[in-house]
């Protein structure tokens, strides 16, 4: 289905240890995490909170397991803080990822975000940007895109539940307001379906701008529970809203077919934050890897 050597498979460490809720998986070590990733058949990883920031140490640990770094999350605060604060942090992040050989930088605007607030209802309190904030976001992302280009890298914007860029309309507005040469898109299946969007529509419309893909499945019956109980994003995660491809309700065959007929080259990253005490990370990594092989041939 896919042209040879165009797609690389990675998995995110968030299934082993959660950045937003460190109590989830606190017993899982960095070494266990990357060893199980490799054993499950993946060749790449994103960066978690237990990963060494010393690039020599990180490179050595990954090389022993034939793993690469695909990318890493960056929190921008372009709508709520002075641009200089985000830029300073971004340059450090960019240089770390460049040293690790990554080509894309995952950026998400966290100004007004409620994704990390444990007791704020996800759907009732979703932030909405003013026009002034949209302009600040656009200008700031252009600046970050220029800084990434200095290192021959791209920023990929991560639409995300609980933020000002979550819905199809918000994604469309961001794409319309930003320069395709400076701002690319991260396509995340789980966040789109959770929000009530059509992932196929977003994929087809923005495929030329998509430079990074997160393969996240969802337990669709949980969405109504989140709405009815006014759960927060973190509460939804704890209760099992997300899972790996092949274990939820998203049918990935059509998604794989569309991408395979395009010019997309880069990473597919399995990302499914769950409570590791309830969903063994290695077991679910193996399940995801087998499903992707079955449905895509990768």
UniProtKB/TrEMBL annotation:
Keywords: Cobalt, Lyase, Manganese. Its EC number is 4.2.1.44. Gene3D superfamilies: Divalent-metal-dependent TIM barrel enzymes. GO terms for molecular function: manganese ion binding; myo-inosose-2 dehydratase activity. InterPro entries: IolE (IPR023952), IolE/MocC (IPR030823), IolE/XylAMocC-like (IPR050312), Xyl_isomerase-like_sf (IPR036237), Xyl_isomerase-like_TIM-brl (IPR013022). Its cofactor is glutathione; Co(2+); Mn(2+). One of its GO terms (biological process) is inositol catabolic process. It is an enzyme of class 4 (lyase). Residues 41-294 form the Xylose isomerase-like TIM barrel domain. Pathway: Polyol metabolism; myo-inositol degradation into acetyl-CoA; acetyl-CoA from myo-inositol: step 2/7. It holds the Pfam family AP_endonuc_2. It catalyses: scyllo-inosose = 3D-3,5/4-trihydroxycyclohexane-1,2-dione + H2O. It comes from the Bacteria. The keyword Heme does not apply. Belongs to the IolE/MocC family. This is Inosose dehydratase. It comes from Aneurinibacillus migulanus (Bacillus migulanus). The lineage of its organism: Bacteria, Bacillati, Bacillota, Bacilli, Bacillales.
């Amino acid at each position: 289905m896919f042209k040879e050597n165009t797609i690389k498979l990675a998995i995110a460490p968030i299934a082993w240890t959660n950045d937003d809720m460190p109590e989830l998986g606190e017993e899982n070590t960095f070494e266990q995490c990357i060893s199980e990733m490799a054993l499950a058949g993946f060749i790449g990883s994103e960066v978690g909170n237990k990963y060494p920031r010393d690039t020599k140490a990180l490179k050595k640990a990954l090389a022993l397991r034939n793993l690469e770094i695909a990318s890493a999350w960056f929190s921008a605060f372009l709508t709520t803080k002075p641009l200089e604060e985000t830029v300073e942090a971004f340059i450090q992040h960019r240089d770390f990822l460049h040293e690790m050989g990554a080509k894309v930088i995952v950026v998400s605007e966290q100004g007004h975000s409620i994704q990390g607030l444990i007791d704020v209802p996800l759907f009732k309190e979703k932030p909405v940007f003013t026009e002034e904030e949209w302009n600040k976001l656009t200008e700031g992302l252009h600046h970050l895109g220029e800084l990434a280009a200095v290192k021959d890298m791209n920023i990929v914007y991560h639409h995300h539940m609980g933020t000002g860029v979550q819905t199809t309309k918000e994604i469309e507005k961001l794409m319309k307001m930003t320069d395709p040469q400076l701002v690319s898109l991260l396509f995340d299946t789980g966040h789109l379906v959770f929000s009530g969007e059509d992932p196929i529509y977003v994929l087809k419309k923005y495929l030329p701008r998509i430079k990074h893909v997160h393969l996240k499945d969802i337990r669709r019956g949980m969405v109504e529970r989140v709405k009815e109980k006014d759960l927060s994003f973190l509460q939804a995660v704890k209760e099992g809203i997300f899972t790996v491809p092949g274990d939820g309700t998203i049918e990935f065959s059509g998604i794989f077919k569309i991408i395979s007929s395009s010019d997309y080259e880069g990473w597919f990253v399995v990302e499914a934050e769950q409570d590791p005490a309830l969903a063994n990370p290695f077991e679910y990594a193996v399940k995801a890897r087998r499903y992707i092989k079955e449905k895509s041939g990768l």
